[in-house]
Amino acid sequence: MSEEKINKTEVEIRAVQNHAYQQTNIKQSTENSMSSTAQDLVSKISALRLPDNYTTHIGGEKLPLKPVFGKFSKHRFAQVHPGKEYKFPCLVVENKELGETYIVTPNMQAYLGSHAVPKILRLSVDSTGLPKIIAQPIIDRSSRPNSWHSSLVHGIQIAEINWTRIESNMDAGQYNIIISKDDLGEPQWPKQTMDEIVQEVFSNNIISDENHPYVRQIQGRI
């Protein structure tokens, strides 16, 4: 083999080796780049994870839940404030067609008749901290016994001491009363007075005038 051919062969071999070396470097550089990109992505994803004590990192102060009016939840346990200062006797009107409940000034009973029923508003708080006003019926011993009313009053009395859940039993015609098996802690009572809570809940549902839409409705006035 001539010297010229040997030199040409050596050049070709070196070219192949250089190409292979360049390809190896490109591959390693690509792998390193992909690895770095993957690590950056994992780092960014990890940064999205909330810490276990997330709530303690939020700035500001958690405000208490707004009080509402309604019945006991059949899914949550609740307690009823036992204090006399958190008992609010008043006249109550239930408009079941519209799902509205009104409280009534005493002078309006002459206009509302049997639509206005005396009840005692009670303050309850469930296990989530939701304050709720419950309407406790007033038992009339001279009238026909009402198992719904008597069982509800009994449940409220138990809820003054224990975490209690009250649910309807349609077959028995009364309420089932269930006491929590575990201690759910101390109830978180609102700091407001009962008058303030009633004002907040019923501010738009007070009947104090004969020209109130509900009064006009039951009297057939336009």
Strand content is 15-25%
Unreliable stretches: none
String of helices and strands: HEEEEHEEHEEHEH
How widely separated are the two ends?
A: 122 Å
The domain tally reads: 2
Mean pLDDT across every amino acid position? 83
The chain-level structural class is alpha+beta
Helical coverage, percent range:
25-40%
**Radius of gyration computed on alpha carbons:** 37 Å
The gist of it:
The protein is an alpha+beta fold and 222 residues long. 35% of the residues lie in helices and 23% in strands.
Q: Which terms summarize this structure?
A:
222 residues, alpha+beta, 2 domains, seven-stranded mixed beta sheet, two-stranded antiparallel sheet, 9 strands, 35% helix, elongated
Topology:
Layout: H1 3-47, E1 68-69, E2 78-80, E3 87-95, E4 100-104, H2 109-112, E5 117-126, E6 131-137, H3 147-159, E7 164-169, E8 174-179, H4 194-202, E9 206-207, H5 213-219
Parallel strand pairs: 1-6, 4-9
Antiparallel strand pairs: 2-5, 3-4, 3-5, 5-6, 7-8
